[in-house]
């Protein structure tokens, strides 16, 4: 059975400490009270708690300094801490949070609010870190219009003028079927000196260059009687 979470309460005012201990114990925690910074450091060395509630105005050492010393102890760097103070000055809140405190609550406070904040901090600290999102796979084809260059699985292709034009057109709309006449009219400047077989010849050399990069793939599909299309289901790199 998992024991109750130990909460180290570092507070020099006994009345406030009694209230904090009572509400924590009532809510299923095990409070451990220390009235001075020295006691807190000793208690921490013996057994690190689940969370520290730390008063800024301690009699023997400033709470911010205690915070730094606790962080330097084994297990202190990742330990959740909540600052407690009678001061309402914004600079104290800013300093505490910039040091790395998880939360800050000013006196007078609602005991139930304090416990609620403790629970939120513990849930947040115990949540497993999220795995980084996988990096997006680079595109199968990358078209650089300014350099008139196309990369296939990251490899630059040495393409003739018309090979570039055909592949660029196919890449724009994978799965879209282009007839030979369409390719002639959209890639070649002058149709008069070009024929259907001219398109077929360029497709053949283009396929050979693509196969040199990925021998097992057939990115350009032939649809008999219709034309050519770029495959829509090429595997990511």
From TrEMBL:
Span of domain OmpR/PhoB-type: 131-232
Cellular component aspect of the GO annotation: cytosol; protein-DNA complex
Pfam family membership, one: Trans_reg_C
InterPro entries on file: CheY-like_superfamily, OmpR/PhoB-type_DNA-bd, Sig_transdc_resp-reg_C-effctor, Sig_transdc_resp-reg_receiver, WalR-like, WH-like_DNA-bd_sf
Residue span, Response regulatory domain: 6-122
Sorted UniProt keywords: DNA-binding, Phosphoprotein
Matching PROSITE patterns: OMPR_PHOB (PS51755), RESPONSE_REGULATORY (PS50110)
Chain positions with 4-aspartylphosphate modification: 55
One MF term in the entry's GO annotations: transcription cis-regulatory region binding
UniProt DNA-binding residue ranges: 131-232
Keyword Phosphoprotein: yes
Biological process per Gene Ontology, one example term: regulation of DNA-templated transcription
Gene3D superfamilies recorded: 3.40.50.2300, 6.10.250.690, Winged helix-like DNA-binding domain superfamily/Winged helix DNA-binding domain
Source organism, top-level taxon: Bacteria
Name of the protein: Two-component system response regulator CreB
Species, as recorded: Ramlibacter ginsenosidimutans
